[in-house]
Amino acid sequence: MLRNFTLLLVFVSTLGCTNLDERHVFNYKIEGSADHVDDVYVIMGPGLEWRANQKIELPLDISHDIYGTELDYLLEATHSDSTADVTLKVYIDGELIEEDSVFVYDSLSLTNRIRISGVFVD
């Protein structure tokens, strides 16, 4: 699965914008003493969207160059145990944007979810 994600990143990089003034490094981390999360959903700017649809072993570290000025970001993890020790961190250009470790129960999907999202404006 990670190999497919890496190939997607290379493809997006090849076709992406090359304006270095608009280059930003997105880095998503999932850490904690839990050995896995049940699913991960990631959005990094325009065109880069990925859902694992399977258990992902921790720790997880995803980093990618993104180009643009108003960039959507989202990092979401689900776990069947709401007391699992899991921390999500979003870094952009080396700066910690947000960190969260509190699961919220989603009654629609019947899952415990941690979610960090927003728009990065350069």
Describe the structure concisely.
The chain has 122 residues and is mainly β. Helices cover 11% and strands 54% of the residues. The mean pLDDT is 89.
Indicate the radius of gyration in whole angstroms: 14 Å
Mean pLDDT: 89
Total number of strands: 11
Shape by Cα distribution: elongated
Q: Main beta sheet: strand number and arrangement?
A: 5 strands, antiparallel
Strand arrangement, major sheet: 4-3-7-11-10
What structural class do you assign from the helix and strand content? mainly beta
Helical region count?
1
State the low-pLDDT regions, or none: none
Element-level helix/strand string: HEEEEEEEEEEE
Beta-strand content estimate: over 45%
Q: What's the end-to-end separation, in Å?
A: 32 Å
Percent of residues in helices comes to 10-25%
